[in-house]
Amino acid sequence: MTADRRPQRDPRHPDEHFEPYELDASIPWPLLGIAVALGVWGAATLFDTRRHEERAQVERIEDTRLATGQAVEPGHALFEASCATCHQSNGLGIRRAVPPLAGSPFVQHGPELVANIMLRGIDGPIRVNDALYDGHMPSFASVFTDVEVAELASYVAARWGENDRVLEAAEAAELRGRVSDLGSFRGGAGVAEDTGLALGDQPPFASGTLQPVAPEISALIFEGRGGQWSCASCHGDLGQGRENTPRLAGLPADYIRKQLHDFAAGRRLNESMAVVVAELTDEEKQALGAYYSGLRVPSNARPDLGGDLERGEQLAREGDWSLTVPSCFSCHGPSGFGVAPEFPPLAAQHAAYTASQLAAWAGGQRTNSSLDLMEHISSALSAADRRSVADYLASLPPVPAGTGDTLAAQGEDR
Amino acid sequence: MSHETEKDARAKPTNPRKGRYVKHLIYAGGATLILAATGALLYESGLIPGLERPDQTVASGYFQAPGNDQIPDSPFGESVRRGQAIFMNTATNASDHVGNGLSCANCHLGEGRQPYSAPMWAAWGRYPQYRAKNDQINTMEDRVMGCFTFSMNAQHSVSGEPPPHGDDIYRDLQSYFYWLASGAPNNTEMEGGGFGNVPKTELGYSPERGQEVFAANCAVCHAGDGQGQQDLNGRYVFPPLWGPNSYNWGAGMARINTAAAFIQNNMPLSQPGTLTDQEAWDVAAYINSFERPKDARQGDMTIEETRQLFHDGDDIYYGQEVNGVLLGVGTPDPERPVGAPE
Fold first, then answer.
1. Are B128 and B137 in contact (CB under 8 A)?
2. Which Pfam families did the record assign (chain A) (predicted)?
3. Looking at residue B45, what is its pLDDT?
4. Which DSSP string do the residues of A135-179 spell out, in sequence order?
C-alpha cells in the first residue's frame, strides 16, 4: 500500500526526488481468519474421511451379524445375498442352467446334504426334477462360517425340501473337517456315490482328461527362467494371488493369454509383468493360460478395503443407472463367474487388485478393454465406489474351474 | 456502496475510500468462504440433522420409479415380487410359455425402469389403448400377451401359446408394472416412454454397412454370430439377437425403426447415444436381416399374404429377399418344445 503523507504540492509540478516506499501494513485479521479456517476445514475433512472408513467397517460387522443370526428368519438374508443370484429368490433356479431347489430330492434329503454340497460344490452333470444341468456350483467353504453354513442349510432344507431338521454349527464344523480334502462332487452321480443317498437316475460323470503340464512350462511357473521371477513367486503356488497380485486360478486361458499379450504391447502397464512377458513365446503364453484356467483353489481374498459392502453389492448386482453404470454381473455373468474370453471372472478376486485395476482404467494406465467399456465405467465410479465393489467381489466364492464340456463329452443333449 | 461512491472511486484512483471498498470486498468474500466451508463441513459430517446426502438416482429428469427396497411387505408386495421374478427370469418363472432364450428384462433394461427402454412406469398408464397391430382395444394383459406371442416366441414353448387370459402371470406382472408406476400420471405420454425415435437418414439403411457397425460395437457381447453368450452353466448373459433363440418375426423389435431406436438409446450397454443415426439404422437392419422364428400369426397363410396383412409399409425385411434369400420362412421348429424335459 503506497501513500504520500507529505503535504500536497501542486500536482502540475510533481516532486522530482520522490521515491515510492511502503508503509507498515499487517495482514488484515480476516485474511488470517480465512487461512486458519481453511486449515481447520482440511484437517477436519481428513479426519472425517477416516471416520467414514471406520464407520463402514462397523456397518459391515453389523451386516454380517444381521445376516448370520439376528435376522427375522435365520438364513434368509444370507440366502438372498449369496444363493439367490443363481437359484433365485423363489428357489426355482434358471431354466436349462441352474437347478431348482424347490422340489429337489437333493434338498429333501435334509440340511446335512445341503451343507455338504455348499462346502464342496458340484462339478459335473446333474439331474433335478427330470431336467439335466451342467452343474457348476462353487464351493462356499471359503466364504461361510460354520454358523452360516448351518443356518443356510437348515433354511434351504426347511423352505424347499420340507425337511425340518436343524443343522447345528458344531455339525457343520465336523462336516467341514470331513470333506475339506475331497474337492467338488463329480456331478449328481458323485453326490449319490459319496453319500449313498437315493437321488434318482443321475447322468454318469465323464472325467475330464487332465493335460499334464510340460516340464518347461512347469519350470516357468515354479522356478522362472534366466534369472526372471517365476509366476508362483508372486501369484502363489496355486495361482491364488494376494493383495495387489491377482488370483489367476480359474481365469479363462484365452483371457490370460490376451493379458500377457497386452502387457507386452503396453496396453497394460506393470513393470514386473513387462519384464516377465518380454521373454515369453505365444505358445508359452497359451500354455500358461491353460494351466491356470484349470486350477481349482479356495479363495483367499477378503473384503479388506473398508468399502461399503451394501453399495458394492448394489453395483455388482443392479448397477447404478444414474451413473450409466450397468451391473458388473450384466456382462461378467451372474455371480461374477465371467463370460470367456472377454469378460473375466470377478468373484474371489483380491479387493486391492480389483480396485487398483478400476483406478488404472479411470486414470488411463490400462487401456485394453473392448469398446473402452471398463474405461468409461471406472471413470464414472468414485474411489469409494471402486473400493466398495472390489470388496464385495472379494467376498464371493471362486468360480468353479471346469472344462465346461463335461456334458458334450458324453454326447448328451441338454 | 452507493452508485455515487463507485463513480467517485473510478474518477479519483487515489481516493482513500477505494481502499476501504476493496477491503470490505475481501472481508465479505472471506466471510462467505468461511460460511461455505463451515456449512460444507457440517453437511459432510452429517451434523445437520435431517439433511441427508442427495439421492443420486433422482438426478435424471425422468420419472423415478421406486426402488426394490420399497416393495411393501404385504400380499400385494408378494405379487410385485413374483411379477418382478417373471420379468427378470421369464424362461423359468413363465417356463411353459417361453419358446426362446429371452426375458422381458432383455429389452426393458434396469428391471423395467430405464427411460427409452420402454419403461413399464410409462407404459402402465397408456392402456387400454387401440392398437392397429390387432385392430382392437388392448388392455395391459392383451399387450403382455402379445409380448409372449412374439418376443418370447410362445409358439415353440411347452404349452405352444401365451399364458391364457386371466392367468396369474398377468396378474403378477401387472402388479409389478402398477407398482413401478407409483405416482406416475395416467393416460399421459411420458418423457422417456417407449424406445424413442431415430430420424430417417438420407442414405437409408443397409445391412452391409451395419455388419461393420456390429463387428465393431456389438460382437464383443452378443458374439460374432449374434447368438449371444452364456456363462459356464449355460445361462444367457448376453441375449441372442437372431436365429431360433431370439424373438420371432411378429415382434416389434423385428422392425428396423424400433430396433434402431432401442439400440441408439441403450446400446452398447453403458455407452448409450454413442452410435450415430446412420449407424443405428444400419446395425438394426443388419440384425434384422437374418432368419428368426416364423411370425406366430402366419398359420396357413403364405409369407406374402402374411406380409400384406401384417407388415405392409413397415421397415422390416419380412417377405423380402436379402442376399438372394427370402426372409420370413422362419427357423426350423425345434424337435421338442423349448424347455421341455428330455
1. yes
2. Cytochrom_C
3. 57
4. -EE---TTT--HHHHHHHHHHHHHHHH-------HHHHHHHHHHH
Residue B5 DSSP SS3: helix
The residue type at A165: R
Instruction: Using the structure block, give the residue that is written with the C-alpha cell 465336523.
Output: A174
Cell numbers placing B291: 432368419
ipTM score for this prediction? 0.76
Question: B71-180 and B207-326 share one CATH topology?
Answer: yes
- Determine the pLDDT at residue B203: 94
Average pLDDT over every residue of B116-137: 93
Exposure b/e, B29-65, CB count within 10 A at least 16 = b: ebeeebeebeeebeebeeeeeeeeeeeeeeeeebbbb
Q: How far apart are CA A410 and CA B280, in angstroms?
A: 43
Cβ contact B41–A320 (<8 Å): no
Closest residue by Cα to residue B242 from B227, B223, B220: B227
Decide if A88 and B92 are in contact by the 8 Å CB cutoff. yes
CB B266 within 8 A of CB B116: yes
Q: Which residue has the cell 481453511?
A: A38
CATH H-level, domain B71-180: superfamily? Cytochrome c-like domain (1.10.760.10)
Whether residue B221 and residue A331 make contact (CB cut-off 8 A), yes or no, is yes
| Sequence-separated (6 or more) residues with CB below 8 Å from residue B309 | B297, B301
SS3 content of chain A, % helix, strand, coil (to 5): 50, 5, 45
* Superfamily of A215-293 according to CATH: Cytochrome c-like domain (1.10.760.10)
Half-sphere exposure of A336 (CA within 13 A, CB side): 24
- pLDDT of A64 reads 58
Contacts of B68 in chain A (CB under 8 A): 318
Output the nine-digit C-alpha cell for B251: 415382434
Distance between A31 CA and the closest CA of chain B, angstroms:
7
pLDDT band for position A220 (cuts 50, 70, 90): confident
Say which CATH class A309-394 falls into.
mainly alpha
> By the CB < 8 Å criterion, does A404 face chain B?
yes
* Segments making up each domain of chain A, as ranges: 76-205, 215-293, 309-394
Average pLDDT over residues B49-59: 43
| Three-class secondary structure of residue A10 per DSSP | coil
How far apart, in whole angstroms, are the C-alpha atoms of residue B308 and residue B318? 10
Q: Domain residue spans in chain B? A: 3-45, 71-180, 207-326
Whether the upstream peptide bond of residue B268 has omega within 30° of 0, thus cis, is yes
Report A:22-51 residues touching B (Cβ under 8 A): 28, 30-31, 33-34, 37-38, 41, 44-45, 48
Judge: B45–A48 Cβ closer than 8 Å, yes or no: yes
Q: Which of A33, A98, A413 sits opposite B233 (nearest CB)?
A: A98
State the pairing for strand pair B325-326/B321-322.
Answer: antiparallel
Q: What is the CA radius of gyration of chain B?
A: 28
State how far the Cα of A229 lies from the Cα of A231, in Å rounded to an integer: 6
- Tell me if the pTM is above 0.90: no
Q: For residue B100, give the nearest of B143, B169, B149 by alpha carbon.
A: B149
What is the phi-psi region of residue A379: left when phi exceeds 0, alpha when psi lies from -120 to 50, beta otherwise?
A: alpha
For B207-326, CATH gives 1.10.760.10
Q: Do B27 and A414 touch (CB under 8 A)?
A: no
Residues 6+ apart with CB under 8 A from A307: A56, A351, A384, A387, A388, A389, A390, A391, A392
Nine-digit cell string for B91: 424362461
User: Which H/E stretch holds residue B321?
Assistant: strand B321-322
Q: Is B142 exposed, middle or buried (CB count within 10 Å of its CB: 0-12, 13-18, 19+)?
A: middle
Alpha-carbon gap, residue B196 to B267, rounded angstroms: 13
CATH architecture of A76-205: Orthogonal Bundle (1.10)
